[in-house]
Amino acid sequence: MTSSDSLPRTVVPAGITDPVESARAELKAALAAIEIKGNVPRRLEKASQRGIARARTFADRNPAGAVAAVVGVAAVTGGLVWAIARAIAR
């Protein structure tokens, strides 16, 4: 394993003296950064996994608070559905 293997894909390794190799490394890093930023489904999956982990940690530490949060979210959701159904019915 070389030192460049431990760098993130979006980093240009230091010490490149050849201009062609430097340009290739910069292009490779830029394309990797674009791929990471542009891959919305993967970013959403990672964000949801982090949210699930945080919710589980919160529920383990504070079960009563977790129940209250679930009841609150259900009440708000039910209120929104009721308001939308009432607006459509009018």
UniProtKB/TrEMBL annotation:
Q: What is this protein called?
A: DUF3618 domain-containing protein
Positions of transmembrane segments: 64-85
Sorted keywords for this record are: Membrane, Transmembrane, Transmembrane helix
Q: Answer whether the UniProt record assigns the keyword Membrane to this protein.
A: yes
